[in-house]
Amino acid sequence: MRWRRVVYGGHRRRHARRSSKDSGGGLFILAIVVFGLLSYAASYVGWPAIIVAVVVVAVLIGRYLIRKATLSTPKAQDLFVSLQNVGAMSGGQFEVFVAQVLQALGYRTTVLGGSGDQGVDIVAVSLEGKVAVQCKNYKKPVGNKPVQEVFAGSKHHRCNEAWVVAPAGYTKGAYELAQSVGVSLFDASSLRTWIKRIDDAEKQALEEQQIA
Questions:
Q1: Residue 3: CA count within 13 A, CB half-sphere
Q2: Which domain holds residue 25?
Q3: Residue 3, domain member (yes or no)
Q4: What is the pLDDT of residue 17?
Q5: What's the pLDDT at 69?
């Protein structure tokens, strides 16, 4: 972070006071505009619905800011910002995002894609072995099919493990099948946990560099 030096002096201090006043006026105008837009919307749906919407948005923004504030390394913060945009990602973009997260966790990743991937979108390799990963960026919980595909695909690619990553979660049947065949299931909460782990590792690495 770059710290901005503060220069004390009559001219600079007067300028700072004017900037503060200008900023306050801008905020007042913005507040009027926002209130006007809310009033216009309320004429169609009513104030109770508007209030509920504002509260929901405020809670979501608050949770986002709190989570981002707890991440102190640039890599983790960037991944967290990308996680908030998962809903707007295409299937291919989501595969690349998951590969980036796994790379930050220490895996060497290959994004396969295409019709010949045999149900495996990413192959992730670490010292512990080789993982076949299928990514499903659906709006609703996914069912048995991805579990079946990645299980078979992991054998084809000679992987030790098989994972499915689906932010929206899974059906009961998917959980039952995954448990019986040994496929690991990960959702949005898992991605957040991975990013927090990346942040912790980055902080530890920085501390070790400072000690050295």
A1: 3
A2: 10-69
A3: no
A4: 37
A5: 47
